[in-house]
Hints:
It is a single chain. The chain is mainly alpha-helical and 288 residues long. The chain is 74% helix and 0% strand. It has three domains: 12-84, no CATH class; 107-187, no CATH class; 196-288, no CATH class. It has ten helices and no strands. The longest helix is centred in the first third of the chain and has 65 residues, at 42-106.
Amino acid sequence: MGLLDPERPASYGGLNRIPVHVLALDDLGVRLNNCGQRASNPIAMKLSFPVRSLLVTGLMFCAIAFPARGQNQSAAPAGSDAAAKAAAARVKSDADNEKKAAEWVGSLKLADAAKAARVTEVIATHLKTIRDWHNEHPYTTVPAGINPVTGKALSQLDRQVIANSAIPKSVHENLMAGLRKDLTEEQVEAILDQYTIGKVDFTMKGYKAIVPDLSAEEEKTILGFLKQAREEAVDYKNMNQISAIFEIYKTKSEQYLNSKGRDWKKLYQAYTDAAKAKKAEAARQPAQ
């Protein structure tokens, strides 16, 4: 049986669990000692050199293999710690999304507990799916380039919005179908407002302030744009992305007003000038 024979018993030499490379050192010492004792014997010397070469080769193998094995074992806990932290973070995120969904549904004050539970599950599932898609599709999955409309370089936010916009349509469809199954249209809109922190109402008030004589038709059209923005925006991960979606429909609203014979830039400038003047006047007033 050779020194590197894989079938060599672990108790070789009568010692249990002694590493092979330690046993090899013992063997080498014995053989070299014998070699020295037989230095006067030419035949023995000729036989000892191959043996010594084999032993040295074996020791080199052990020196490389065993430390590497130890390094792999020490690296394992670090990888396990990272995986454990990731798992804990996901559990916390799931709990946060479930809590958020329950709070949103709670604001509707539904009398039917089973209905409330179903709607909560629909929303929580949607929030988790949006999170996962966002995390698995960072902006770097979209090549850098230009906005074909403006000619400007795509920003990091632009690229992330593009990545998130590729989410399967079924994700949004499942949300809306689940909400409409148990809620009235007014209640569905209330939930969508929770996703977008009331941006439809806030933005509509802004348009009315900037264009005081907004017609009923203009108001209806702009409100339609904003509601469309809201429904699309719920499929995005954070407020920066949600605001970016609203900007698309605000631009459409302003272009619509221009098409109706209004000059949006002048209207907006007049509004901001008036707001600044009012603020300056208030600052001049003596403190009460």
